[in-house]
Amino acid sequence: MENIIELKNVHKSFKGFDIKNFSIAVKKGFVTGFIGGNGVGKSTTIKMIMNLLQPDSGTVSVFGLNYKEHEKEIKQRIGFVYDENILYDHLSLNQMKDIVKHAYENWDDHLFNHYVELFDLPLKKKIKTFSKGMMMKASLTMALSHHAELIIMDEPTSGLDPIFRRELLEILHQLMQDGDKTIFFSTHITTDLDMIADYITFIHNGEHIFTKDLIEIEEEYAIVKGGLELLDREIEQEFLAVRKSNYGFEALTANKGRAEEVFGDMVIMEKPTLEDIMYYTKKGAEQHV
Ligand SMILES: Nc1ncnc2c1ncn2[C@@H]1O[C@H](COP(=O)(O)OP(=O)(O)OP(=O)(O)O)[C@@H](O)[C@H]1O
């Protein structure tokens, strides 16, 4: 399977924060959701994928190309939606389009008009009068109007109402039906991913925790609930995190089969949500310091 984005052994240090030995491969033709809590390095990673930031060491390649020699070609083939407003707000959408279209060889006015109509966007109103949802639709329109093969979005659904979030996901879903596209997007709202993602890449504290397909996650992970008498030090070590109360324990395992083998029917096993996995991983990182 072809990888469209590859980061290999990437390091990036800010004061008080590091991306550490970060390697990921994003598969062509699929939707990958990039998840992690606040401040764990999602935007920093996306900026490095977009060459808006350069790693201190390690390599970034997109479409198998490096930015040093192929920046122009790579950028032509990406549709980028950033979470802050990168549109010039004193312009109208029409004026904005006239600037942006010249940057892209494959700009398609037809497609632009299609999305403007679909999103019901005003062409002549100043962008500064747009609501957050309209702004997102406008950014998306720009990103989708030049036949990009790879769509990268930083938190596209944050701050949007549930109805528009649903619509946006539906549009992305439609886009994937066309065949050759790849979508990589970061989000906090993990429930969005059940609808659309094929793969999940999980980052915590600047470290790549996993990239897995959603089915694999369902098969491997479980929340185990049982009485405290079932736990000993050795067994506890096998869990990613354990929460104990007077009534018993709740723990996350990444090896459901092993937990079944150890505990049999003495425990209850539940399917974790992605949110559970994020929550327990954070707890686990704190417990294992
Ligand atoms: N240019 C910068 N200079 C210094 N520190 C930075 C810079 N950019 C990001 N950071 C720090 O790096 C860490 C990771 O930030 P980043 O924006 O990548 O996180 P994030 O996962 O996208 O978070 P959120 O979901 O809250 O947007 C934070 O502690 C942030 O303060």
TrEMBL record:
SMART domains: AAA (SM00382). It holds the Pfam family ABC_tran. SUPFAM superfamilies: P-loop containing nucleoside triphosphate hydrolases (SSF52540). Residues 5-230 form the ABC transporter domain. Gene3D superfamilies: P-loop containing nucleotide triphosphate hydrolases. Keywords: ATP-binding, Nucleotide-binding, Transport. GO terms for molecular function: ATP binding. This is ABC transporter ATP-binding protein.
